[in-house]
Design brief:
The chain is built from two helices and nine strands; from the N terminus they run ββββαββββαβ. The protein is mostly beta strands. The strands form two sheets. Strands 2-9-8-4-5-7 form a six-stranded mixed sheet. The protein has a three-stranded antiparallel sheet with strand order 1-3-6, with no helix packed on it.
């Protein structure tokens, strides 16, 4: 296993564990925040990003999937606000949509987790694929992972 301390995901819009600005919320502009990627392991063939809300378990009975994006080139060090990297593929969220679905807690402040995975392969999946399908095809291919968390209240 690779030392994960060098593999970092961060955002210029919010610090790890802090509040995600309103404009990134589902009911506001619903655009993805800018993300910076550092320390991508050398043998990485592609990156996968999954954003979900484990706190939704209490409100809707499951971890709510907000964004699934895969086959991100390992040369990408930044995902700009309101954009996806060329060649990357977005999957289906629990909003029933393809692409980013911002924070939308129904009850109280929730924590949102952006999980970034470095893989030793690219994934052969359709655009409409779900987080479960992506996680299934990532099995045994994860070289490193890192995460960024943010909070958002209704």
């Amino acid at each position: 296993m690779i030392d994960m301390t060098d593999f970092i995901l961060e955002s210029s819009a919010f610090k790890n564990g802090k509040e995600i600005p309103r404009k990134y919320g589902y009911k506001n502009s619903n655009i993805n925040p800018p993300l910076k990627i550092k320390g991508i392991p050398q043998k990485t063939k592609s990156l996968v990003l999954i954003m979900d809300d484990p706190d939704a378990m209490g409100a809707v009975g499951k971890i709510w999937v907000h964004w699934v994006i895969w086959n991100i080139e390992p040369t990408i060090t930044e995902i700009k606000e309101n954009s996806i990297p060329n060649g990357a593929i977005q999957g289906k969220t629990d909003f029933g949509e393809i692409g980013y679905g911002g924070p939308a807690p129904p009850d109280k402040e929730h924590t949102y987790i952006f999980k970034l995975y470095a893989l030793d392969t690219t994934l052969n999946l359709k655009t409409s694929s779900t987080k479960i399908q992506v996680e299934e095809s990532m099995k045994n291919h994860i070289i490193a992972e890192t995460k960024l968390t943010g909070k958002y209240a209704p």
